Amino acid sequence: MAPIRTTLSLAIPLFLAACGVQAAQAKSAFLGCAEPLATPLNPTPVFAASAAECADACTAKGSKNSFAYYHSTSVDSCVCSPMGPDEVYDIAYPAGGSCADYEVAVYVTRSGHSFVSQNKSRRHLDRMERIALSARDVKADCPNPLQACKVKNDEGYQCIDPQYAIDSCGGCINGAFGDATTTPAVDCTALPGVASGGVICSLGQCKAYRCVDGYTLQGNTCVKA
What is the dihedral of CA 176, 182, 183, 187, to 10 degrees? Predict the structure, then answer.
């Protein structure tokens, strides 16, 4: 039997994340600043004294809270939601990394899915949130809702959530492990015109919030200007 190419320290965080249990070191990514009206309907209010506390609080709430919204001058200054900001409104990314008092700071949390804020973070998340096992004589066993997907140029598989995996959004990018059928999947970070850290995978669909120069944002898609 081929050896398992992972360690218990990697397997445990993945299993906990799949069960909705969050570690104290859970991270979030700053998406940008938006108008208050961009906040989705019926969010869950939580107490937070700062944008950073808001992001942490929404992360700790569970896997259904994919976004944190912080508006310092609002009665409910911090709210959590599984929904992203309304695509009708633009998402601005300030050079200083902070929003004005009249704006809502939007964060993508780590609850239950992976995301990318920069290349270094992506490599880190790949190590921390995936289990790679040898396929020979090994039966795929991924905790719900994760799916066993083939590893490129390897006989192993990796456990991902195709509903939120940014580089395998909607399915297994290299094919499902032990299954001849394939489900269409997209690497959201490779889409044309998408700015670094400006795209997420949500419910199996890529959603862009920032585009590079020469592209404009139209309905969460970067279109060449």
Answer: 70
pLDDT band at 96 (very low <50, low <70, confident <90, very high): low
Give the pLDDT score at 133. Answer: 42
* pTM of this structure: 0.49
Query: pLDDT by residue (tens digit) across 6-63?
Result: 322 223 233 333 333 233 234 677 878 888 888 888 899 999 999 989 988 888 765 5
Average pLDDT over residues 173-197: 85
What CATH number labels 23-111? 3.50.4
Establish how many alpha carbons lie within 13 A of residue 189's alpha carbon, considering only the half-sphere containing its beta carbon. 16
Question: Could you tell me whether strands 28-34 and 222-224 are parallel, antiparallel, or unpaired per DSSP bridges?
Answer: unpaired
- Domain spans of the chain? 1-20+131-225, 23-111
CB 217 within 8 A of CB 206: no
The position carrying tokens 């990697």 is: 10
Rg (CA), the chain: 18
